[in-house]
Every structure is written in C-alpha cells, then in structure tokens.
Amino acid sequence: MRNNSLKEIVKAFKKHDDYLLSTHISPDGDGIGSELALGFGLKKLGKKVAIANSDPFPANYEFLPCNGILKNREEIKNTYGVAVSLECPSLNRVGKLKKNFLKSGMIMNLDHHMSNDYFGDYNYVDEGAAAVGEQVFDILVGLGVKLDLNIATCLYTSLLTDTGSFSYSNTTRRTHEIVIELMKYGVNPSDVNQNVYEVSSLGKIKLLGKALNSLQVDDKYGIAWTVLTKEAFAKTGTTYSDSEGVINYARSIKGINVAISFTEISGGKVKISFRSKRDEVDVNKIALFFNGGGHKRASGALQEGTLKEVKESVLIKAIDVIKGVSAGKKLLSEIKSCAASAKMKR
Ligand code: 5GP
Fold first, then answer.
1. Closest Cα to atom 8, ligand 1: which residue?
2. Are 292 and 283 in contact (CB under 8 A)?
3. Whose CA is nearest to atom 10 of ligand 1?
4. Are 9 and 122 in contact (CB under 8 A)?
5. Where are the domains of the chain?
6. Ligand 1 contacts CB of residue 301 (under 6 A)
7. β 293-294/298-304 pair status
8. How far apart are CA 339 and CA 268, in angstroms?
9. Which of 1, 55, 70, 158 has the fewest CB atoms nearer than 10 Å to its CB?
10. What radius of gyration, in Å, describes the C-alpha atoms of the chain?
C-alpha cells in the first residue's frame, strides 16, 4: 500500500513480460494516450501487451494509433502476469476489467489523482504530474525505449487534454519540457488539436445547446450548474462522451468558483462532475463525500437517485464546502489583523 519510486516501477516493468493495460470507465485523452504510449513502448521491448477498457474510445480519439494492441474485452485472456491501471484512483474505476485485474499475477497502479487509494501491488502515484502521460514518459525513458512518432503523439494527446490545452494550473515547466521532447519525434500540435477538438458531430453541438439552456447560477456562493437528461442524449443522438467539456462553460462565468454538471445515465444513476476556478475550493472534497474523487480543481462522482434528488444533495454539500472556505478565510484575516494590532501596541 505504499508509493513506489520511478526506479522501482522501471525495475518491475523490466522484470515482467505479459501485460494487460486499462484506463478508467468513460476514457479520456490522458487515459487513452498514456495506455497506448505505454503499450507501444513495452512492445518495443519485446513484451506481450493487450489493452482493453470498460468503454470504447470516444470518436475524437480514434485517430490515435491502436492497431494490434487495442482489444475488445471478449478477446482478452482472463489473467495476465501484470495488470496495469492508468489514471484510476481506485480499482473500481477500471469498470468491467476489474475481474481480470483481480485474477492477474499483480496489479500496477499508475495515477496522478490525490484521491488515489493505493490499491496496487505496485503504486506509482504522482499528484504533481499534470497527466499520467508525464509519468509514462518518465517510465519509457527509464526503460530505455526509443520513442517514435506514434508514442509521442499518444503522449502529446494525454498532456494536451489533461491540461485543458496547457491552460490549467496543473501545467508546469516539466509539462512543456516533455512537449519539447515529443516534438523532436515529429508531433504536430495543430494536427492533434484538430483531431481532438474540431471533430464535433452536429448532435454534440446540439447537446451543448441543451446543456447551456439548463444552466443555473447561485450568485451568493458562486456556483453554476448544468443538467443533461437521458432524453437530451436521445434527442440529439449522442452519448455521454459527447458531453465532455460542457462544464467548462459554466466554470468560465465571471464570479463562479465551482461548476457542476449533472448527467443522467442508465441504471438510475447520475454522473456528477465538479470544477473549481479558485484553488481555495477543493472540489475533490465534495466528490469524496459522494464516494467519488479526482483532483482539487477537477473531480467527479456517480450517485444513485433522480436528477432532482442528486442535485439537491450535491448543491447542499457544495455550499457547505464553500462556506467552510469563506469561514477559514475570515478567521485567517481576523488572526492577521489581531497580530498586526498587537505589533503596533508593542
Ligand atoms: P470528469 O468530471 O471529467 O469525469 O472527471 C474529473 C476528474 O475526476 C478526473 O480526474 C476523473 O478521473 C475523476 N473522477 C471522475 N469521476 C469519478 C468517480 O466517479 N470516482 C473517482 N474516484 N474519480 C472520478
């Protein structure tokens, strides 16, 4: 249950030969890019690798190379020497692959979420990494893998998407240094950007319209939220992955500290996403309360219940957390002014 060093992880990868790689349910650019890059890198070292996920890739990631390595769940073996999860804070996040993980020789957990519960036999969790793609870059370099255009494109996609096109606060000098390295292999940022962000279906844009129509704002606490019903997806012919990015519109409103999206999915469940604009509001705390997790400024959870029920309980908790932040700030300024007046009296 401890965190391993990069050196230990590299050593473990050198030792073993038979891998299953998976990312989380509803895979995103970081999960997909990092698993493909790691998979191609391990294959270059002569290892056996299969990648399988609980859900298919969203259409905007289909441009990434995946021939011969990405399998349907039905095609994979029950058990592998090592099952590696990428970008999963808990084992449940690999979804339908969980049984293959539990049957495999060992589990390796590669992640950058602060809410990670260290479920692996090996854990390489780095909250400071902007994307798991950064960690995979370091692993591949440590393994002495010669990068190529395919691997570099997958890693670039991972970094691009998890940093909001290098705009979020998780973007570091290290992120840019890795990008410089990747560009040496011929990655074309403009091409990747076009493939990822400029391939929306008409349905996706109409879904965005429905989400924006549902937008509500609480000025007092600085919360904005959107709601997408199952009917909205049916009417626009879209699926959950088409709602990616909707929440950023709510977050971009002036004066908003916390943005929330409520999405009705199958099985009587609601998927909740949280984003915060200011570092003081830790939305991971809200997500953890609902058995979810993520990062300080981007987190999510899944709840059973109707949209109305889930919305009410989540908004109450969000207000609690925001009030806690305001109370903390008030206390801090009182302490500071007390200290200042004490100094003046001296
Ligand atoms: P999103 O809102 O885009 O689905 O996810 C934002 C962040 O929260 C991502 O880093 C994602 O991995 C994490 N996250 C989303 N949903 C869940 C969840 O149900 N459980 C946990 N533990 N993390 C989640």
1. 299
2. no
3. 294
4. yes
5. 6-197, 202-331
6. yes
7. antiparallel
8. 53
9. 1
10. 21
Among 228, 291, 299, which is best to mutate for testing ligand 1, by the most ligand atoms less than 8 A from CB? 299
Dist. CA 330–CA 243, nearest whole Å: 37
299 lines ligand 1 (CB under 6 A): yes
Q: pTM, whole model, 2 decimals?
A: 0.90
Residue 53 in contact with ligand 1 by CB distance below 6 A: no
82 within 8 A of 106, measured Cβ to Cβ: yes
Ligand 1 pocket check for 88: Cβ under 6 Å: no
- For strand 298-304 and strand 269-276, is the pairing parallel, antiparallel, or unpaired? antiparallel
1 Cα: distance to centroid of ligand 1 (angstroms): 22
Is 294's C-beta closer than 6 angstroms to any atom of ligand 1?
yes
The matching CATH number, chosen from 3.40.50.300, 3.90.550.10, 3.10.310.30, 1.20.1250.20, for 202-331 is 3.10.310.30
Residues with Cβ within 8 Å of 230's Cβ and at least 6 positions away in sequence, in order, are 264, 265, 266
pLDDT tens track for 160-184: 999 999 999 999 999 999 999 999 9
- Judge contact between 314 and 272, C-beta under 8 A: yes
**By alpha-carbon position, which residue is closest to atom 24 of ligand 1?**
300
Amino acid 114: pLDDT: 93
List Cβ neighbours of 181 (8 Å cut-off, separation of 6 or more): 137, 147
pLDDT of amino acid 128? 96
The CB-based long-range contact list for 313-320 (8 Å cut-off, 24+ gap) reads 314/260, 314/262, 314/272, 314/286, 314/290, 315/218, 315/223, 315/225, 315/260, 317/286, 317/289, 317/290, 318/221, 318/223, 318/258, 318/260, 318/274, 318/286, 319/218, 319/221, 319/223
Q: For residue range 304-345, what is the model confidence (pLDDT) as tens digits?
A: 999 999 999 999 999 999 998 777 666 667 766 666 666 666
**CATH number listed for the domain at residues 6-197:** 3.90.1640.10
Cα of 274 vs centre of ligand 1, distance in Å, is 9
Q: Which amino acid is at 46?
A: G
